[in-house]
Amino acid sequence: MEYSLYLIPLFPLVGFLINGLFIGKLNKKFVSFIACGAVGLSFFYSAHLFFELLSLPAEARAIEEILFVWIPSGQFNVNIGFLLDPLSIIMVMVVTGVSFLIHIYSIGYMHDDPGFSRYFTYLNLFVFSMLILVLANNYLLMFVGWEGVGLCSYLLIGFWFEKKSASDAGKKAFIVNRIGDFGFLLGLFIIFWQVGSLDFATVFEKAPAMFAVGGTLITAATLLLFLGATGKSAQIPLFVWLPDAMEGPTPVSALIHAATMVTAGVYMIARSNVLYMMAPTTLAVVAIVGMATAFFAGTIALAQNDIKRVLAYSTVSQLGYMFVACGVAAFGAGIFHLMTHSFFKALLFLGSGSVIHAMAGQQDMRYMGGLKKHLPATYWTFMVGTLAIAGIPLFSGFFSKDEILWKAFSSQYGSTWLWVFGVAAAAMTAFYMFRLVYLTFYGEGRMDSHAKEHLHESPKVMTIPLMLLAVLSIVGGYVGIPHVLGGINYFENFLEPVLHAGQNLPVATHVLTSGSYSTGTELLLMASSVILVLLSIILAWYLYRKNTDLSGKLRTSMSGLHKLLLGKYFVDELYGAVIIRPIVNGSLFLWKIVDVFLIDGLINGLAVVIGDISTGLRTVQTGRLRTYATIFLAGVVVLLLFVLLR
Amino acid sequence: MLLDTVIFYICAIFAVGGAVMMILQRNPVASVMFMIVSLIAQAVLYVQLSALFVGALLIIVYAGAILVLFLFVIMLLNLRGERFEEERPKLGLTTKYGLAIIFFFEIVIIIKQTVFTGSISQSPITVASDFGNVKPVAELLFTKYLFPFELTSILLLVAIVGAVLMAKKENNDKGEQI
Amino acid sequence: MIVPIEHYLILSALLFAIGAGGVIISRNLIIIFMSIELMLNAANLSIIAFSLMHNLMDGHVLVFIVMTVAAAEAAVGLAIIIMVYRKRDTINADKFNLMKR
Amino acid sequence: MEDRILTLVTFFPLIGAVLLLFVPKERDDSVKSIALIIAFITFLFSLMMYSMFDPVANGMQFEVNIPWISTFGISYHLGIDGISLLLIMLTTILSVIIMISSWNSIKTGVKGYFISMLMLETGMLGVFVSLDLFLFYVFWEAMLIPMYFIIGVWGGPRKIYAAIKFVLFTMFGSLLMLVALLYLMFMYHSFAGEYSFSILDLYKMPIPLGAQTYIFLAFALTFAIKVPIWPFHTWLPDAHVEAPTAGSVILAGVLLKMGTYGFVRICLPMFPEATLQFVPLISILALIGIIYGALVAMVQRDIKSLVAYSSVSHLGFVMLGMMALNVQGLEGSVLQMINHGISTGALFLIVGMLYERRHTRMIADFGGLAKSMPVFSTFFMIASLSSIGLPLTNGFVGEFLILLGVYKANPVYAIIGATGVILAACYMLWMLQRVIFGKITKPENEKLKDLDLREKIILIPLVILIFWIGIYPKPFLERIEPAVKNIVSIVNSSRTASEAGMSKGYKCVGDRCDTHTFTTGGK
């Protein structure tokens, strides 16, 4: 049966081409119609395919369609081909769905921007690249999408290129991502030369035979792929670009830097679950890095004043959770959190966008406050998102986060420490999110009077996507109610065929059967985390609502710590001093000293030496006839002597 | 025959003496005169070597025409006894004489080693009675060597044209400084 | 023919050496020039001697041609001397060192 | 037609140059139009050749072999395989483009300029079609002369220095090549009893390892200077900065490829054992070139010298891939030669357009051009992204194949080489950021005119090629593949032979070698 998978990315590509080639010649209505229409078509088509897929038996839910041969070279052969299976359809649905809503939101948000059509052009290109990433049937095509979304991220972060900080941030994002891509590429080389193919199907089928479980090669390959993931998904040590990426327009932050692109790393690891299951060392690294990032980014978010930066660090932190899930071999939980996170984080970002829109570009929370009555729709939807991310029961974040925490505790690869740090990070999440809410929506307005007059609720085109996302943030979790709460985890059952292969490896047989813990333990852990979250919400309420002086005092009494957190642990400065400056200075040295002085000097010196020798020899040329004649005669004499004495 | 030997030595002395005197003179006119002496002595030697025609040419063309041309130029430029101020030459005179002498001996040794190793020179050479006369030489010139002979005429023509052109006094003196 | 050919050749060598010496010793362009003529003559002498030795008159033709060349050379060379004298008012060979740059 | 097409393509520009001699030099416009038409017809001929080329055939095609100086076995021997085919196409396309690009920028000595350009085209094409070493050498040297004039007459302020440096560097190398060439000739004579300069004949000759090493070094040095491999690269930035735009385009696009082409055509198959010996050395030099070129490019202040140093880096990739000596590496290397010609050519053209408007190339003099010149900035961005090897542009396919092949040969080289990919992004994006992004700080940049039709016509074909090779490189790769496989099998057979304690020669009997000889004569 023909599914025409290529249609899914084709729509945004066409949108991109139309808007891109006729840039500046189309009016805004048409541009937005084309852009949103393209993504909408993709969404509806993928929804259609989703139901087609559901109608198939679980084992047959993997459709592969090959368009044409891309790079043939000797035994190396890579196609442009697409793979639709439960994992990719979920990603496609999330990507197109969230993108569609954000496209619509952007019509309102970007309405007065002179780069309106450029914005939608980039946005469509992004959706196209992202769809290539998730639909690819081989690693190399995935890499195309991988770099493609990096490019779009670069373009969109630097969208307001006249602002130096914006174009700096774009460049930084691209280069940091490139460092990750470097690892990704090398990982591909190992896989190809070991397995002889880059197609997912072939690789996953042959890998168990070609790699030794836990061997150096598979560990190296998976670690290198993970390096790529840390770049794309902003994990330690490559997370530095994501907070800066907030220089881009807010819908972009919502779409690319929260909901879709940054989750590509998680998707890639879930996709490669077979490989990762064979490398326990890597899994441990993934879990530790993920948890460290979750915790570390959470602490930074505690002290930030910029509304978008708080959300950015929160994204980094939440991505850390997803990696923890992958690291403890609970790929399904990771993808589940990925999905719910993309709903509520998109919602939060768009909500903050609505706030910023109302505040005429002001992003500093210290100048906000009391916005609840001015922006009711924004407030309510934002609140839903906050509750979801904080992990309050009945909201989607609760189910997914709890699943991860449980797996971190119970899985063969998990440990109590992972759980402890996870809960601590969850508590911090609740704290900084409610700090944000209280500072923004409650209390007295701290903005100047001019800004106060400007306050207004956003137009419908912006609030309706907010509401839809709010609904999703609530119901999104109910597809994966854990067994312990009496639900059926539809979500993981659906994903099972894809993740099945990895979990059926000999090394991992007892991962799923982690039944050594009683349901009571699970419920206890669940309850304790919820209680901790509630406590930290109360703390936030106390510090930022009830007794605002105390928070100031706290800040001064712990000014060192506060500075450290506000300065984001000075990681950027560290990288600057340790990596960037030596490279730039070294390059100047290479240019000025090695190139110009040494190599050119050597060559010019050679020329000078030859010149000097010639000058010396020139004195023989007296210009006098008789000298020449004498030398001539002497030459003849010597020559004859030579002949005679021979 | 003794007479031949005597004539040879007398002519040789004159030829060499003339040559030496020629290069040692300051006055170019005297130089030319000594050169003529040397040439006449050489012409006699030519005749002794049965080269009548060439010997005659030597007197007529060299002594008679070329050296007269030299004399003419010397007179024209009024060069008599021009004193050249002494400059310290880079290579001393002794070295130069030495060079010339060594050169001479080298040639002699080569002649000794290569040309006359046998007794050819000792045996009297019998040649045709008209060897070197005008007629046989002319026959050669106009038959076997006709083409080189004609070429010499072209050479002379070119030389004449060149000499005329160069020696012509330039009215407007724009030529480069020599 | 009692005088051995060898003697003629040595005489010719002597004349040639004197000519060569003249070229390097004399300052006067004209004398240098005559020395060159002398060297040509010395060569001629040996050619004549060889010619007799081999009983071939071709050598005479060669001498004839050499003389022609000498004549042409004298004509052109003297023309050059005249021109040089006009420009520089001297025929001291040491004065001409424009080649030194 | 089959046997004449190569001669036609090669010498048509020269005919055009002769034709131009008869055009009065005041009539600039007709000079330009005639040159353009000639270049375009040459391009059409090469297209015809491309369509006649049999992609699956093994060996040389369109071969011509006419004795020239038969005493020394020198013949007029032409023929192409997939590698030369693509390079010829690149040359003819770039030639058309530079004719258009020079339309307004050359103001003095128009006639001489276009004649030089056409002569240069013949020289370059000649190098790629020659199958006779002597003919190769003649074309190799002949192409120096017009290039010398192009840099030395129509160049920038330090043009004389740059032109002399360029010629001296190249001459130095080619003299070594001449010596090696003569040595080969005599060696072939004692081997086969007759003289021959034919490359195909020389492939079959066994050369003792000692001699092979020296001849290889002589050839390799020649080509290394041309490529240029670090540390012989210092002529390149000077030549690029001083040359007129079209000169830079041709220099980067085609001339540098002559060095790498020389390696592929001569060094690898003719001296396989010596090549194997020098693989580590050349690979390490290539790696140094990649990193070094990128680092130095990062701190350049002049856009053109930045692009020039980036060429050093890119050519390092080409050499690295070649030294992998496997199908992927070599194929990537050949494809990357084409890619570099296209993307760096485009970059030089773009810099030239900027220079025509502002008469400066200093990065510090620009900023915010995306605002005043959006179309220009888009093209600039595309060319830069292709240069840093973004997927779906041509640079990616080449670099990926190179690194894939190199990884097979030596993973450490691949890891070090891949850092070049990061550095490429650093210097290109940093430059882009300072040139087209940011606020307009200089008032001169506010009123800059965006690209006109002529300039768009120049760039659009290159952009199409960038994406074509990036998205559907199969037509190119499949044409390269037979030739590359031949070379790889020659080198590998000598590798196995030398491992078994034998040299290439002992496997050959008379002039018949076993399976790995080039079959002559196309279909």
Written account of the structure:
- The complex is a heterotetramer of chains A (646), B (178), C (101) and D (523).
- Chain A has helices spanning 7-21, 28-54, 86-109, 116-135, 139-157, 164-195, 200-210, 216-232, 241-244, 250-259, 264-271, 273-277, 280-303, 307-327, 331-358, 376-390, 396-410, 416-441, 449-454, 460-475, 490-503, 509-512, 519-546, 548-557, 559-566, 571-618, 625-645, and strands spanning 63-73, 76-84.
- Chain A has 646 residues and is mostly helical.
- In chain A, helix 3 runs antiparallel to helix 20.
- In chain B, 70% of the residues lie in helices and 0% in strands.
- Chain B is built from six helices and no strands.
- The mean pLDDT of chain B is 82.
- With 523 residues, chain D is mostly helical.
- In chain D, strands 1-2 form a two-stranded antiparallel sheet.
- In chain D, a hairpin with a 4-residue loop joins strand 1 (61-69) and strand 2.
- In chain D, helix 3 (82-105) packs parallel to helix 14 (327-358) and helix 14 packs antiparallel against helix 19 (453-471).
- The model of chain D is unreliable at 502-523 (pLDDT under 50).
Which descriptors apply to this entry?
heterotetramer; A: 646 residues; mainly alpha; two-stranded antiparallel sheet; globular; D: 523 residues; 20 helices; 2 strands; disordered C terminus
